[in-house]
Each structure stands twice: as structure tokens, then as C-alpha cells.
Amino acid sequence: QVRLVESGGGLVQAGGSLRLSCAASGGTFVGTFDRGWYRQAPGKEREFVATINWSSGSAYYARSVAGRFTISRDNAKNEVYLQMNSLKPEDTAIYYCNIHPWWGQGTQVTVSS
Predict the structure, then answer these.
(1) Shortest CA distance to 89 belongs to which of 62, 61, 64, 60?
(2) H or E stretch covering 37
(3) Pick from 11, 19, 21, 33: which is nearest to 104 by CA?
(4) Contact assessment for residue 25 and residue 3, using Cβ atoms and an 8 Å cutoff
(5) In angstroms, what CA-CA distances link 2 with 18, 28, 67, 112?
(6) Helix, strand, coil proportions of the chain in percent (round to 5)?
(7) Cβ density class 22-58: b for 16+ within 10 Å, e for less
């Protein structure tokens, strides 16, 4: 059973930064799987934020966060990160880590104006 645990969420003012972390455990085979971050704002559907290829490190971003967010990984720790800069109130959401088909429990990010 694969377990994903996110951390690093919180309350920040617009223009601020947060760094989310996601630790994976419970499945040695997931070490090479791509990792992704998704988010869900109140009343909205879950949406893609960013993904990273575990082997090459190639990253892809949603247009709404490109240039502000950076996804990275630590192969040795089996962790993935999301550095979020220049945060906006519209970034407020629960952020989820994903290794298909598994999901973490989410971490709340709230950006005040």
C-alpha cells in the first residue's frame, strides 16, 4: 500500500511563498513513477498544477502557475516538493500529491489579499 503524506501548507499573504513537501512510502516500485501536484479550491474541481518525470527531472506546469511555482524531487529521500512564489489569493486550495493512482490527504494553502 503506497502512502503519500503532504506537508508545508499554511496561511500566507499575497506575494509570499510556501514550500510543500510530499513523502512517499510503502511501495518500492513507485520510486520511478512520475509525481504530480494537484489542487482543489472550494466549489471547484481538482486541477493539475505540476508534474515531474522522476528519471529525467523534466517538469510541466499549468499555465496559471508557470513562472511562479517550481516542482522538484529528491530521489534519495523519495520526496517531491512544490516551491510556490508570488502567491495569489486564487492559489488558495487544498494541494494534493499524486503518484497515479494514489493520492495524499492534502494540505491546505490559504493566501490572503
Answers:
(1) 64
(2) strand 35-40
(3) 21
(4) yes
(5) 25, 9, 31, 34
(6) 5, 50, 40
(7) bbbeeeeebeebbbbbbbeeeeeeeeebbbbebeeee
pLDDT tens for 26-41 read: 866 666 788 999 999 9
The three-point CA angle 93-6-112 to 5° equals 30
Tell me which H or E stretch contains 113: none
- Cell 498544477 sits at which residue? 49
8 neighbors 108 (Cβ within 8 angstroms): no
Point out which residues pair with 22 in neighbouring strands. 6, 80
Tens digit of each residue's pLDDT (9 = 90 or more) over 59-76? 999 999 999 999 999 988
Question: Using CA atoms, how far apart are residues 61 and 57, in angstroms rounded to an integer?
Answer: 13
CA distance 88 to 110: 9
